[in-house]
């Protein structure tokens, strides 16, 4: 069942990407718009996932306050591992999106077609920066909760 859903999601993404890629080759500004849309969608998904993971770590750490080292470790281990894995995965995805956007912006600049999409790119940059800040804040809160947990442990 899980493989079927994953396969359908992949096919849908390819079906959307193929026409966008053919249009992108013809119109550099359209390529920039498509890459900005992809970047914003992936950024929102990364934001939602990472903030939820960081809050789960925070909740686990606060719930394990005052427990033994072994109990505390068991309480937060899975959440920390999930946060690390998701952060690594989304980091690579966001880097690929940024690289694609930079390449399409370079092509649009060379074709003198950057002016109509400049404000769109600036808005996207501000949105991604805001989301990145919210993720950073949530992760800092999780780190602080883990630090408090270490301080509160009993032997």
Q: What can you tell me about this protein's structure?
A:
Helix 1 packs antiparallel against helix 2 and helix 2 runs parallel beside helix 4. Helix content is 89%, strand content 0%. It has one domain. It is mainly alpha-helical and 155 residues long. The longest helix is centred in the middle third of the chain and has 42 residues, at 69-110. 24% of the residues are buried. It has helices at 2-26, 28-63, 69-110, 118-152.
Distance between the termini: 45 Å
Query: Helical segment tally?
Result: 4
| Oligomeric status | single chain
- The overall pLDDT average reads 87
The low-pLDDT segments are: none
Helix proportion of residues, in percent? over 70%
Structural class category: mainly alpha
Largest sheet: none
Shape: elongated
